[in-house]
Structure formats: C-alpha cells, structure tokens
Amino acid sequence: MDFTVALAQIKPKLGCLAENCEMICSAVERGISEGVGLVVFPELALSGYFLRDLVPEVALRVDSPHLARLLDLSRHVDIAVGFVEASADYRFFNSALYLSEGEIRHRHRKVYLPTYGLFDEQRYFARGESLRAFDTKFARMGLLICEDMWHLSAPYVLAMDGATTLICLSSSPGRGISEDESLGSTVAWQKLTSTTAMFLNSRIIYCNRVGYEDGVNFWGGSEIVSPSGSVVARGKIFDEDYLVGVLDEGALRRERIFSPMMRDESLPITMNELRRIEKERSR
Amino acid sequence: MGLKVNTKLLRQLLVGFIREEVYKVGVRKAVLGLSGGIDSALVAFLAAEALGARNVHAFVMPYRTSSPESEAHALVAAEQLGIHCQVVEITSMVEAYFSRYPDADNMRRGNKMARERMTILYDHSAALSALVLGTSNKTELLLGYGTLFGDMASALNPIGDIYKTQVWQLSEEMGVPREIIEKQPSADLWAGQTDEQELGFTYREVDELLYHMVDLRMSHEELVSNGFDAGFINTIYRKIQNSHFKRRLPVIAKVSNRTIDRDFRYSRDWGK
Q1: Which of A189, A192, B25, B118 is exposed most, by the fewest CB atoms within 10 A?
Q2: The complex's ipTM?
Q3: Range of the domain at A62
Q4: Hey, is the C-beta of B172 within 8 angstroms of any chain A C-beta?
C-alpha cells in the first residue's frame, strides 16, 4: 500500500540521552500531527555517534523508560530509531528498532562494525548475528545500519527474505573534499543507495544525521529512493531537515514487472556456490 | 583527485564547523591572532561569517623586528571584515625576559614570541568568554613548522586539514585582500625571512608530495615512479616523523588500569 514516510535528519547531542529523546519525541509528534505512516531516525539517534567509552553509559535495555515513551508513541505512527542496546549479558550493540502499534516489531543489531580510518566501532560494540526481513502494515521491510549497506550480501539477504523496502539508518561522516560538487562520502552513498535499489528492485529509505562531533561533520542528504533507483526526495546537505515523501505501491509493482531480477534470482545456484566457497575456504 | 578543491563546499563546511563547535561550548565569540599573513586572515574571514563580525576579536601582536607591512595587512583584513581588532605589542615582555639571556638564538626568541602571543590570546579568551581559533594549516602541522604551545595552541582549528595551496584557493573564494594572498609567506620573526627560503622548497612542491604521501598513502616506490625526488621524499618523511611529538598530547607514564587517552577515551564534545 502507499504510505508516507518522514525522515528526521536531526543533530543528536553526544551522550545526552534525555535531550535526544525529547528531540526524537517531538519529531515523532510532528509525524503524528501531519499524518505520516512512518518516522525514521539516524543511526545512534538517541546517543550520538563518537561515543567511545560512553557506550556502556548510554546503553539501554529494550525495556528502558526512554524506549517505553517511543513505544507508546508508536501506537499512532511507526518509528525506526537507532540507539545503543545493552543485552542481559552486558554486551553492547549498535541497534535499530522498528516500533509499531505499541510493540517492537523488529530489532536489528548492526552486523558490520567499521574499524578502519576514522571508525572504531568493533572496539566498543558487539557484532549483530542476523539479517531478517519483517512484516509491517505497509510492506515487508528490512533494517540496516550504515556500514551494513556497504556489504552487498546484507541488503541482498533482506531482499531474498522478501523485503521490498529497506530502511538504512546512518551516521555517515563527511570527508573527501575535491573539485566535485559534493564530498566523496556523499557521492559514494548516493551511488550506493541508487544501485542497491536497482539491483534489488526495492525502495531504499536512507536517513543520515547532521552536525559536528569533534570536528567531524555528518553530511545529511537523507533520501527516499524508488525501486528503479531514482531519488524521490532528498534532504538538505549539512543542515537539519524533516523530509517527507510518499512511497508509491504502484511504482514498486511496475518496477517489478519491468525488471524482474528478484523474481529470476536463483537461490539454489547462489547457495550451492556459497557452500562450495565456504567448504574450500575451511580447508 | 588532487589538491584542487570545491571552495564553496569547503567554505560551507568550515563555517559550519566554527559556528557549531563554538556554540556547543556555550559561548558565542572567538579570538584569534592576526599576523598579516594569509592563514590567520582566512580564519578571520571564516569566523566572521560563522559568528558575525562583532563576535570576532582579533589581536595583532607585533615584535619590534616584525615587518610594519604585516601589521598594516592585518589591519586591512580586520577593517574589511569589521571585526574587533587590538594591537598589543609584545616587545617589552619578550625583551624583559631575554635581558636575562642575551645570548639566546633566533629559535629561542621566535618560540618565546609565539608563546607570548598565545598567553595574550588565552587571557582574552577568558576575559571575553571566547574560544581561541587556531591558524596552523595542514602543511605546517605535518612539517612541524610551528611552535608547540605557541602558534600551535588553540581550542578549534578550522584550517588544520587543508594544505597551504588550498588555503590560497579558499582565500580567493572568501575575498581575502589581494595583497595578503599574493605576498610571500613568512613567519616574520626577523626582517626578510620567508617560509619557502627557510624550508628550502616551495609550498606547491611540498603540498603535492604530502598529498600523495599522506592522503593517498603512496609507498616510497610509488612516489618515486610518480616523479618525486627520492631525497626530497626522505627529507619530508623525516620532518613529519621528527615533529610528530608536536601533534600529540604529552606522554603519560602508565601505571593504573585506566590512563587518560589510552584507555580512558572520550570525545571532546562529550555531553555537547
């Protein structure tokens, strides 16, 4: 079915759970008053990104009061939000929740934790171990967090699991100045979202944050990308934004008729070859 | 790829950086030293755009051997922007000290001048509730061509990740006065001194090498096959290595389980 999504391109404060929670709740309330179906937030929206030793301090159990407030609001609008999750055995995950009708519809723990260049996630976070699509009242969806998108297999698995809408929560640092119109990171992401949408005949909802942490900028530019790879709506670069767009069921249906790559994708061939590779590598 | 940059995009990024990182701390103002050279002029232009001219306080701090042209250029830049500007001569303070050590060489004197200026900026930082803006560019920082705890000291440095040749490009975009853009870069510690003469190579040459070595991470062999002189590569590599201490915090002897900056790690913007 058609539905309206709002991408809250916010500027979280580093380590300030209460203030960020207020910011998030007011964006959700705006979504409710404007009648959207889903409000999406960036990766680690509740905590900020370069947390380092703050990770255990801002980590929340899924039954925490901050999340209870969002769960309550999700009775009126669906919400996808990123936060630091603490498990019962004291592991910490870079997680995202899809909340709907007062319940946690899905939890995704970031699988690919970048630890290179300016990134240091594997030092602080435990790795997620699964990629699963889930049903919502609008479509079958998949959640990914930032670096997950850069591993071809992650969106592929979700699409094979039936997802037609992929939500990617991001805190992408802006870098790579050149003569180009945009930063290198912006150019790379725009290619990635569009190409992934085309490969998988799926919509991409990409929500990136803005602001600066210790001199590192987050470039924004959140996007709604149609299954044909064209951009339906794009948020401001560097500035806060609240981007609203309609996801058109007809566009998805037509694209899947024009380019039925997902229909023709061969799970048996892929599985056979991957099993062979796994066997050969373990020798 | 290369040293040429989209100056409009860079301007937007650096202006945003100054505004957000200053406001985050809970202040609205910045102070900086204005030498009459291009680096500090560019930072003044960025700061005026980020914070508004009335929130930028520039200090011109000449020593008796400083070129009068430098002071004149600093004042031209400040006037064009309409920022606050004060001249605080440092001759008496520096001379008072060196009257005890009359044999001190140029390096000691130059370092003392740079640190004297730093204390003045930090004093006004407290007096005005303003942050000190750094004006060292990436070329100087990598080569260690600056005084530790002197001109290298600051709260925020908007130009520390751009090379000197990129400083020139951005200064054109920002409208820094022509005479400042076109003059020979100089530390202005004594008459006739120029950076390029003292360093022994031009900024264009060294920036090209630094870009390939640091940003693109080319190996020695790759640099040579790209036309860089092996001797020049070694000289610059050693300069970067030998000045690395200037780019780090003081080394702390580890005895506990949680040592500042080694296993006690927080971003500076913690809680902001």
Answers
A1: B25
A2: 0.94
A3: 3-281
A4: no
